[in-house]
Amino acid sequence: MALVWDGTRFVTEGGSDTGESDSEQPLTESQQVVAILDLKSDQPPPLPIDSKHALSTATAVLHYVTRLSSDKRTHAHQLALRTSLEPFATVRDWIRKQYFSGRKEATIKAALCWALNPNRTQPWICKKAAVRPSQATVAKGLALHLRMHPFTRSEVQHEFSAYQNWIVERDRRVGTLVPRRNGRTLDAAVALVELQRNA
Q: Is 50 exceeded by the pLDDT of residue 75?
């Protein structure tokens, strides 16, 4: 992972914002094919590197979740199945749909992180995505739902980084637009209100 100046700030290039060293490594092409075809696996296949495996991986994840008996389905599995499976051209379209469906930014961020690291624990995801444990269950369901779409690992990584940067940039812009208040201004306002009330 390299630190590169983009003209306005330093950005990381060639790595994941989830910490490349401790993030899950993607499967090789042959491992991905085995994971797709393994119907008896206790986990669905992770996001593929190659776009030629994207559709079959998405189908395998969908079949994995639908094959589970209702007593073995977790809340995350149920949420993934309840969320409508619309075709999305890009990961960004999927993010917009979740955002406009009322999902919180932190939940979407955790879902993207969990889609990239499906075998990580809830505390790890909470730490990496900076979310509360209460948001993590919904995020796991959304991550499964995202993996039911034909996206590659690099597409999700790119949008995860872009989404985090968008949140930071938006918060920075909002912070500069809102005028700073100091204690003296507040004291003067209180004094004026008191004068007006007593007049």
A: yes
